[in-house]
Protein backbone atom coordinates (compact mmCIF):
# COMPACT_ATOMS: atom_id res chain seq x y z
CA UNK A 1 0.00 0.00 0.00
CA UNK A 2 1.17 3.52 -0.71
CA UNK A 3 0.59 5.63 2.38
CA UNK A 4 2.63 7.77 4.72
CA UNK A 5 4.42 5.70 7.37
CA UNK A 6 4.83 7.10 10.86
CA UNK A 7 7.23 6.14 13.64
CA UNK A 8 4.58 4.59 15.91
CA UNK A 9 2.62 2.68 13.24
CA UNK A 10 1.85 -0.96 14.09
CA UNK A 11 4.01 -3.60 12.42
CA UNK A 12 4.62 -7.35 12.05
CA UNK A 13 7.36 -8.92 14.14
CA UNK A 14 8.42 -12.26 15.63
CA UNK A 15 7.45 -12.79 19.27
CA UNK A 16 10.49 -12.87 21.57
CA UNK A 17 8.62 -14.69 24.33
CA UNK A 18 5.40 -16.69 24.74
CA UNK A 19 2.41 -14.49 25.47
CA UNK A 20 -1.28 -13.73 25.24
CA UNK A 21 -2.82 -11.85 22.34
CA UNK A 22 -5.10 -8.85 22.96
CA UNK A 23 -8.04 -11.10 22.09
CA UNK A 24 -7.02 -13.69 24.70
CA UNK A 25 -5.44 -16.30 22.43
CA UNK A 26 -1.98 -17.65 23.23
CA UNK A 27 1.07 -17.32 20.99
CA UNK A 28 4.51 -18.94 21.16
CA UNK A 29 8.01 -17.52 20.96
CA UNK A 30 8.99 -17.08 17.31
CA UNK A 31 5.41 -16.78 16.03
CA UNK A 32 4.60 -13.85 13.75
CA UNK A 33 2.51 -11.24 15.58
CA UNK A 34 1.11 -7.79 14.77
CA UNK A 35 2.27 -5.22 17.33
CA UNK A 36 0.85 -1.76 18.18
CA UNK A 37 3.72 0.27 19.77
CA UNK A 38 1.44 3.04 21.11
CA UNK A 39 -0.66 0.71 23.24
CA UNK A 40 1.55 -2.36 23.51
CA UNK A 41 -1.26 -4.53 22.13
CA UNK A 42 -0.12 -7.67 20.36
CA UNK A 43 -2.30 -9.75 18.04
CA UNK A 44 -1.56 -13.29 16.85
CA UNK A 45 -3.11 -15.71 14.36
CA UNK A 46 -6.32 -14.70 12.60
CA UNK A 47 -6.72 -11.65 14.84
CA UNK A 48 -3.31 -10.39 13.66
CA UNK A 49 -4.32 -10.71 10.01
CA UNK A 50 -7.56 -8.83 10.71
CA UNK A 51 -5.76 -6.09 12.67
CA UNK A 52 -3.19 -5.65 9.89
CA UNK A 53 -5.87 -5.46 7.19
CA UNK A 54 -7.87 -2.96 9.24
CA UNK A 55 -4.81 -0.77 9.77
CA UNK A 56 -3.90 -0.88 6.05
CA UNK A 57 -7.46 0.05 5.12
CA UNK A 58 -7.58 3.02 7.52
CA UNK A 59 -4.10 4.21 6.52
CA UNK A 60 -5.11 4.19 2.85
CA UNK A 61 -8.05 6.48 3.66
CA UNK A 62 -5.72 9.04 5.25
CA UNK A 63 -4.38 10.43 1.97
Secondary-structure topology with pairs:
Blueprint: E1 11-14, E2 19-20, E3 26-27, E4 32-36, E5 41-44, H1 45-62
Antiparallel strand pairs: 1-4, 2-3, 4-5
Question: How would you characterize the overall build of this protein?
Answer:
Strand 4 (32-36) and strand 5 form a beta hairpin. This protein has a three-stranded antiparallel beta sheet with strand order 1-4-5, with helices on one face. A two-stranded antiparallel ribbon has the order 2-3. The N and C termini lie close together (11 Å). The chain has one domain. The protein is 29% helix and 27% strand. It contains one helix and five strands; from the N terminus they run E-E-E-E-E-H. With 63 residues, the protein is α+β, with helices and mostly antiparallel strands. It is elongated. The mean pLDDT is 94.
Number of strands: 5
Percentage of residues in helical conformation: 25-40%
Q: State the end-to-end CA separation.
A: 11 Å
Ranges where pLDDT stays below 50 over 5 or more residues in a row are: none
Structural class determined from secondary elements: alpha+beta
Quick description:
Helices cover 29% and strands 27% of the residues. It has 63 residues and is α+β, with helices and mostly antiparallel strands.
Question: Any key phrases for this structure?
Answer:
63 residues, alpha+beta
